[in-house]
Amino acid sequence: MDAKNLSNVVQRISSDYGKVILTGFIIISCVLISAKALINRNKAEETISVTGIGTINFEADLAVSSGDFKRTDINLQNAYKMLNEDRKTVESFLRSKGITDKEMIFSSVAIEKMFSHLREGTTEKSIFIGFQLTQSVRVESKNVDQIERISRELTEIINKGVEFYSQPPSYYYTQLDSIKLAVISEATKNARLRAESIAKNANGNLGTLKNASMGVFQITAQNSDESISWSGSFNTASKKKTATTTVRLTYRMN
Questions:
Q1: Rounded distance between C-alpha atoms, residue 186 and residue 175, angstroms
Q2: Beta strands 240-253; 47-59: pairing state
Q3: Residue 84 · residue 162 · CB < 8 Å
Q4: Last residue of a domain, one of 149, 170, 191
Q5: I need a labelling partner for 35 at 20 to 30 A (CA). Which of 120, 138, 209, 222 fits?
Q6: In terms of Cα–Cα distance, which of 187, 188, 247, 186 is closest to 213?
């Protein structure tokens, strides 16, 4: 082999060797970058999620009592006259119990024609028996104990000859926003304490808050086994109530 051919072979080998080195360098670089990205990703996933619960007991500060009374007569004017007398009796009863006129809300009068259905063989006959007039009354008061007491004494109206049908009182709280904020605050503190306890037991440090979300707000009767609803419950049948909610917090770990 002459000197010229030998020089060409050496140059080709050198060129191929350089490509191998360059390729190896690229592969090693990619591996290092991928490893670093994996480490960073794993660090980002070092989080802790906890759920805290907040519960507050409170009492209603507004009570609502309602009922309706009826009269039926073949003559519409007579039925209305009797119903109007019944209304005066209901108003008198409520005033005697300390209810003011502003706390009484009377509905408009509903009129319904009443029929009796008789069957003669294969034929059915409808016989008009009169007009039924119905009026309802609603009482709202912040004197909750007063409404509760009146609801147990409504039989006095019936004893006066009024066909009165009452509903159990409903109980509400007019400052519900303050209750919600207090329950959320308690649930958040509870979640934070749980997160700190878990981090301490894992020999770690709690980092910054990454995410926070609140569960459904619930109002149930105190000391009851009332069902919790996924859409939220709102108890109005009990004067003493319990407000509950949950807060889920996600922290980064240092």
A1: 17
A2: antiparallel
A3: no
A4: 170
A5: 209
A6: 247
Both 77 and 128 in a single domain? yes
Q: Which residues contact 208 (CB under 8 A, 6 or more apart)?
A: 251, 252
CB-based contact 161:87 (threshold 8 Å): no
Half-sphere exposure of 241 (CA within 13 A, CB side): 25
What residues does 154 pair with on adjacent strands? Answer: none
Tell me what pLDDT residue 45 has. 58
Q: What is the DSSP string of 61-114?
A: SEEEEEEEEEEEESSHHHHHHHHHHHHHHHHHHHHHTT--GGGEEEPPPEEEEE
Which one, of 72, 76, 71, lies nearest residue 116 by Cα? 72
d(CA 208, CA 48) in angstroms, rounded, equals 11
11: amino acid identity, one letter:
Q
Domain of residue 204 covers 47-59+175-253
Distance from C-alpha of 186 to C-alpha of 138, rounded to nearest angstrom: 37
In the DSSP assignment, the letter for residue 188 is H
Q: In this predicted model, what pLDDT tens digit does every residue of 95-104 receive, in sequence order? A: 999 999 999 9
Q: Find the helix or strand (DSSP H, E) in which 25 lies.
A: helix 3-44
State how many domains the chain has.
3
Which of the two residues, 5 and 13, has the higher pLDDT score?
Answer: 5
Contact predicate 179/61, CB 8 Å? no
Is 201 in the same domain as 191?
A: yes
C-alpha to C-alpha distance for 241 and 92, rounded to whole angstroms: 33
Mean pLDDT of the chain: 85
Q: Provide the 8-state DSSP code for 234.
A: B
